[in-house]
Amino acid sequence: MTLSADAFAYVADLVRRRSAILLQPGKEYLVESRLLPLARSAGLSVEELVARLRTRPVESDVTAVVEALTTNETSWFRDSTPFSALARHVLPRLVAARGGVGRLRVWSAACSTGQEPFSIAMTLLDGLPPAMDAEIVATDLSAQVIERARAGRYTQLEVNRGMPAPMLVRHLTRAGAEWQVSDAVRAMVTFSVHNLLDAPPAGPFDVVFLRNVLIYFDLATKRDILRRVAQVLRPDGVLVLGAAETTLGVDDGWDRVSVERGSVYQRAARRATEPAGVVTAAAGLPQPWLPPAVTTAGATRGEAG
Amino acid sequence: MNAPVTTVLDASVVHDQVSAVAQEVFAAMVDGDAGLLLPWEGELPVLAEPVVAWVDLHGDWAGRLALRTGAPTANALARALLGLPDEAEVSHADLVDACGEVANVVGGNFKSLLPGPGTLGLPQVGDVLPQTPGALRLQELPLAWRGQLLAVEVWSFGAQDAPRAAVATHDGPAIPDQHGGGDHA
Amino acid sequence: MRALVIDDSRTMRRIVAGTLDKLGFETAEAEHGQAALDLLEGGLDVDLACIDWNMPVMDGLTFVTSVRANPAWRDITLMMVTTESEQSQIVRALAAGAHEYLIKPFTPDAIRDKLDLLGLAVEGQPA
User: Is B28 on the interface with A (CB under 8 A)?
Assistant: First the structure.
């Protein structure tokens, strides 16, 4: 069951070029075990799978292999910037725009095992004024991950990934060797199976998280998905993509807004398809965004301390 | 049972919890991935050069968490932890420290599953566990790591675990070194 | 960036320091809290300390309390790295002034995630 050095080198190089992740020698066992499910479903050994990839590098196969090797436990507050952007910039603006009352609705559109929607819920629970509440609609294609997400229970290894310690003690409780998300947080999130190729869940939403899932689709489909998202997003609502993703070159119906170390997207001020007289996004655009605050260790520490 | 109130452990719960802890420790620290520490299948081999690493736990529950394996496997484990290449020499000090640390992390996580507070002793490594009078082996989990035997053992120092531990719900004489329910299928 | 790795296990120090090295840190090590304080008092300048809890001579909690009591060391980020995982222990550590808390066992990615949360710039990724 040992991968040949040659095959390992090929895979390591592929992963490095696609993801900047370095697979050092010594990780052959990891490569074997991660690629085994893929190989099995193709009726091949791992060695054969890699050989096939080399001679016939089909994009979806390459993506699947890279994903299998680079996806570890889904992390909480993934990439951190979107969540601090949510807490410090997006949320205060939306609260002000809504007059400090009512309900904010968020769609977590590729929610996987739940870390993302729960992270959003915790951020909102900590940041919303008393007269407001929030609802997070969390969807994913896979029924299996949805079931896990509904349980709201995570292993110690899973909670180690990106969860600020103060959040951990505030919003989760130990349950044996695992950690359970609090009832207050779970009550804010509803989970369901959903295919992004279908009509979106009923809007309108104030925020949509569509992170690291567009990569699986071709350009035309990406555009379709983004258009469907725009249909259920409020004019002054915000779209959050993955750290390395952009709407640029995909769908021109979005304006990029720089926030902290990243970006969020709003529906473009003018869209050719919108009839005159309809309230356009321009009316909902915020008063000038404050220049993104430089996130220093000191500023972050102030929260954790 | 008029022993003083102390923590009593259910052997089958111990089995599952220790299994989960061992999986997590190896997945995170040793292998970089889950699924490489598996239940041992088939007969248990005799270890020619046994290496045992253990930590003792004190408090409401007193006992010991031990890892038992063969010297070649212990060396491989040390290399994996220290990032040494396959054929590298492992000094005795490094072996003791590495295997001791695995016992420490598994023991520490096991401790935090116990109902009451407690403390962990320093990890120790040798070729055989010290004899502790009254010690009862609650569980033995033979596992396969890279195809080699690595067994995790939980020992209790308290007689209060004896009747409960041997058989989960049966009142009977203490049966040392039995898995829970072994005789009562 | 500079980190100080404090743990009585040489193996654990190597694992943590090794991961931090790959993330672009210069690392120093100490085997307990007192040795770590001696290094700081001797002028060692660090941005981050990774601290085990249970150590001889001076434990991690006492080290954290000492560092936070000294204004000269105000800018050092303090992260516990320990098997102690009871809720009450985590709360104690945070109350004593630790900024973050990593439960053993952890993966290299977990360290990277924590550093990201703390705003400590890292290079590359550990595999």
Answer: yes
Cα–Cα distance, B33 to B98 (Å, whole number): 19
Q: What is the mean pLDDT of chain C?
A: 92
B27, B97, B112: residue with CB nearest C85: B112
DSSP symbol at A280: P
Together in a domain, A169 and A275 = yes
pLDDT at C109: 83
Give how many domains chain A has, as a whole number: 2
The last residue of one of the domains, among A27, A42, A68, is A68
Residue A283's pLDDT is 36
Whether A49 and A134 map to the same domain: the answer is no
Q: Which of B146, B142, B143 is nearest to B75 (CA)?
A: B146
Contact with chain A for residue C32, Cβ under 8 A: no
Angle between helices A28-41 and A5-19 (to 10 degrees): 90
Q: Would you tell me the crossing angle of helices B71-82 and C10-22 to the nearest 10 degrees? A: 40
pTM attached to this predicted model: 0.76
State whether A151 and A271 are in the same domain. Answer: yes
Q: How confident is the model at residue A63 (pLDDT cuts 50, 70, 90)?
A: confident
Range of the domain at A123: 81-296
User: Which chain A residue lies closest to B13 (C-alpha atoms)?
Assistant: A176
Reported confidence tier of residue C91, pLDDT bands at 50, 70, 90: very high
Last residue of a domain, one of A45, A68, A91: A68
User: A2 or C1, which is more confident?
Assistant: C1
Name the residue with tokens 């998300």: A181
Domain annotation covers residue A90: yes
Best-predicted range by mean pLDDT (A46-50, B163-167, C58-62): C58-62
Average pLDDT over residues A72-97: 86
Subunit contact A156:B24, Cβ cutoff 8 A? yes
pLDDT for B2 equals 45
Residue A305 inside a domain? The answer is no
**CATH of residue A50:** 1.10.155
pLDDT at B36: 81
Let me know whether A107 and A223 are in one domain.
yes
How far apart are the CA of A264 and the nearest CA of chain B, in angstroms? 33
CA distance A176 to chain B (A): 6
In a domain, A267, yes or no: yes
Residues A99, A188 within the same domain: yes
The distance of C73 to chain B (nearest Cα, Å) reads 30
Average pLDDT estimate for B54-61: 92
**Active site annotation includes A34:** yes
Active site residue A79: no
Spatial contact of B63 and B138, defined as CB atoms under 8 Å apart? yes
What is the per-residue pLDDT for C127? 44
DSSP string, A38-102: HHHHTT--HHHHHHHHHHS--HHHHHHHHHHHH--SPPTTTTSHHHHHIIIIIHHHHHHHTTT-E
Chain A residue numbers with beta carbons less than 8 Å from the beta carbon of C77 are: 297, 301
